[in-house]
From TrEMBL:
The keyword Transport applies. Pfam families: MFS_1. Keywords: Cell membrane, Membrane, Transmembrane, Transmembrane helix, Transport. This is MFS transporter. GO terms for molecular function: transmembrane transporter activity. The chain crosses the membrane at residues 26-46, 66-83, 95-113, 119-142, 154-174, 180-202, 214-234, 240-262, 283-308, 320-339, 346-367, 379-401, 408-434, 454-477. It comes from Arthrobacter cheniae. InterPro entries: MFS, MFS_dom, MFS_trans_sf, Sugar_transporter_CS. The keyword Repressor does not apply. GO terms for cellular component: plasma membrane. It is found in: Cell membrane. Residues 28-481 form the Major facilitator superfamily (MFS) profile domain.
Length: 494
């Protein structure tokens, strides 16, 4: 048996964990999937409800944008701390508290009678999501320690991560059109009740062994650093050459650099550097940033194209987004069977190119274009490519993680997606303004053409972002396919 490289779990640890894998692990997967779906849905489900909520609560445009920003801000800032709390306090306990707190915050937002109460609720949602998301992924990692079952479990998780945003658009459209915007938040309550009721008897508690001392300086630095970066990118929508945009981005980079310095010297680091310095895992994290940026940016502007240019209702707009999700679901099963045969490197190299091709097709949309001819082919290719990425990405990002670090490593995966989404939203908003402005300058101000020009620029930029993940995967992800075989007894690097 080959000795595993530094940063990868000892095979004996994997064997022991495998022996302890619960018999009801597929029910555990269902519970974790519910939690992941809830967190992903809230990234998009509120977007469709915002116009109605703004009108009813008499919110300004600035306050409306904060409904989205506050969730991303608290979620992204507290993720690593939430992951370490899950490791030390207990993953089951953190999952149940996170799920319960998320439900209460959702109920508060759902019955909000003022903009201030809605904003408070969204901030609390993000905070509890930062505890819930890493706990859920850590539970999945511990429950499925290796082999083909782990590949299948992460295929389900990756499908939700990739397609949940589109499902959120559909569900938001249904609830807004037939009920009210309040239900876009209240819908989380029954989901949480089911997850908690099932989780109490089915989930097993697990926590890190040994010292459980918290790294307070590291927690403060990384929370403030991530919050500053996310906020800085959110302000970039109003302009890049602004004091607040550049100031918060610079402050965030400085704080994160200090965080790395502190972690390199800490006896009990919040984020052990071995987690992010492993070559394959670092490649997965970088790919996750690129994919998160491209996916959220593309979905936002595709939704705008559906509603503003094609004139679709919120419900029909959500339905029009489903082919991408269907492609992810169908292909995820195929990819999970391919992973043990070809390994993650080829899949994660080819996947971004397929998805980027889909976005290139979407960049050719027109004002009077046909959905079937101009949008559907690109959506399907985007979904296929994302399935090739998400299924192996989750596996590689948590491959060989020591059991005591599973919570914080899971948080790091989610944090890369959040940061990627924030970067993508800000950058693509700026590029959209340039594209739409160019169309106006060319004499198209009288119609929808400037908007379509802006959307096309966004899809083209998203394609470039996705394509960058291909060489990253090819050169950095060198994990042998044997790691994903039925036995999964050792971690070989190619």
């Amino acid at each position: 048996m080959t000795t595993p490289p530094s940063g990868f779990a000892n095979p004996s640890i994997l064997d022991t964990a495998r022996d302890k894998a619960p018999a009801n692990r597929w029910l555990v997967l269902a519970i974790v999937a519910l939690a992941q779906l809830t967190v992903v849905l809230d990234g998009t489900i509120v977007n469709i409800a915002l116009p109605q909520a703004q009108l009813e609560l008499a919110m300004s445009d600035s306050d409306r944008s904060w409904v989205v920003t506050l969730y991303a801000l608290t979620f992204g800032a507290l993720l690593l701390l939430g992951g370490r709390i899950a490791d030390f306090w207990g993953r089951k306990r953190s999952f149940l508290v996170g799920m319960g707190g998320f439900a209460l915050a959702s109920a508060m937002g759902g019955i909000a009678t003022s903009g201030e109460l809605l904003l408070l609720a969204r901030g609390l949602q993000g905070a509890f999501a930062a505890l819930l998301a890493p706990a859920a992924l850590a539970i999945l990692s511990v429950t499925f320690p290796g082999g083909r079952d782990r590949v299948r479990a992460f295929a389900v998780y990756g499908t939700i991560a990739g397609g949940g945003a589109a499902v959120g658009l559909l569900l938001g459209g249904v609830l807004t059109e037939y009920f009210s915007w309040h239900w876009c938040l209240l819908v989380n309550v029954p989901i949480a009740v089911v997850a908690i009721a099932a989780g109490i008897p089915l989930l097993r508690e697990s926590r890190a062994e040994g010292s459980t001392r918290y790294d307070i300086p590291g927690a403060v630095l990384v929370s403030l650093g991530l919050a500053s970066v996310v906020y800085g990118f959110s302000r970039a929508e109003a302009g890049w050459i602004r004091l607040d945009t550049l100031g918060f981005l610079a402050l965030g980079v400085l704080l994160l650099a200090l965080f790395i310095l502190v972690e390199s010297r800490a006896a009990h680091p919040l984020l052990p550097l071995r987690i992010i310095t492993d070559r394959a895992r670092a490649g997965a994290y970088l790919s996750s940033i690129a994919v998160g940026a491209a996916l959220l940016g593309a979905l936002l502007y595709l939704t705008l194209y559906f509603q503003i240019v094609l004139g679709l209702s919120p419900l029909h707009s959500g339905l029009a987004s489903l082919p991408m999700t269907a492609a992810i679901i169908i292909c995820a099963g195929v990819v999970s069977r391919l992973l043990p045969r070809v390994g993650p490197r080829i899949l994660m190299t080819v996947g971004p190119l397929i998805a980027a091709t889909g976005l290139l097709l979407l960049s050719r949309i027109t004002v009077g274009g046909s959905y079937v001819l101009e949008v559907l082919p690109g959506q399907i290719l985007l979904g296929v490519g994302l399935a090739f990425i998400f299924v192996p990405l989750q596996n590689v990002a948590l491959l060989g993680i020591e059991p005591r670090d599973s919570g914080v490593a899971s948080a790091a995966v989610t944090a890369t997606q959040q940061i990627g989404g924030s970067i993508g939203t800000a950058v693509f908003t700026a590029l959209y303004a340039v594209g739409a402005g160019t169309g106006t300058a060319e004499g198209n101000a009288g119609g929808l053409q400037p908007l379509v020009d802006g959307y096309s620029v966004v899809f083209l930029a998203a394609a470039v972002a996705l394509a960058l993940a291909s060489p990253i995967s090819w050169f950095m992800i060198r994990v042998a396919r044997e790691e994903f075989s039925q036995s999964g007894e050792s971690a070989h690097l190619g």
